[in-house]
């Protein structure tokens, strides 16, 4: 981007994309693929409120004769849980996750928020848009052809500096970032750097994102300078408008830990089956233990039957 020639911080109201397509947990394994997984529905996801497991087990089949529809998430920017990528025949994840910018790590897999293991043809990570991992450790291991994983400045990506990054049993004898000054995702894709006062939250080295953004930002209009749009909000996001706020307004419900929805939106939010948990003003995908569904879309605490 060449829209700014000096460090700039936007002080306007921070917003993210209004009404993003929200998905729950995503599992792509040999079992789901054999059952006829709708990969086209996955392609629309912009936010995944759960975790992503991509483990198609191609290593157990003949790669030359196995044909599957490519799994891609072209619009996905944030994942609330963890991402596990394993047992695949991909050479790069660049086309699968071209816009993935933030992993929140609210749900972890054995303390890890990013797991990349046993991808026997993988030679580059390609996660060029990944700017922020808010919680959890990283393990990248047993990818026999993988280069450049150790070159990356993982401390720039990890929000919690006490986390652990494990890279082992990958390819160690490959060239060190041939076209980049230091860190790279692939031979031609350098890791983005932020100015120090952007605190890891930037559009480019010269443009900081609004403070309420997390995981970077982008211009709403790519043909000319315009307002910066957050990839994700640091605290809460009003679903309909995309506005970043400290907390949900009193007349709205919280869902997924960082989205604010109306009661009307809740009932159709999770693939048409959201439920209102009145006690804590939340919108949930199903009534939790100890609650029962009442009036179609409300969760009411269960009471003991009289003796």
Automatic annotation (TrEMBL):
Gene3D superfamilies, sorted? Hormone Receptor, Insulin-like Growth Factor Receptor 1, Chain A, domain 2, Receptor L-domain
Please state the Enzyme Commission number of this protein.
2.7.10.1
Q: What enzyme class is recorded for this protein?
A: transferase
Q: Which UniProt keywords apply?
A: ATP-binding, Glycoprotein, Kinase, Membrane, Nucleotide-binding, Phosphoprotein, Receptor, Transferase, Transmembrane, Transmembrane helix, Tyrosine-protein kinase
Provide the topology term for how it sits in the membrane.
Single-pass type I membrane protein
Domain of life assignment: Eukaryota
- Single GO molecular function: ATP binding
Q: What is this protein called?
A: receptor protein-tyrosine kinase
State the organism named in the record: Adineta steineri
The organism that produces this protein has a lineage beginning with:
Eukaryota, Metazoa, Spiralia, Gnathifera, Rotifera
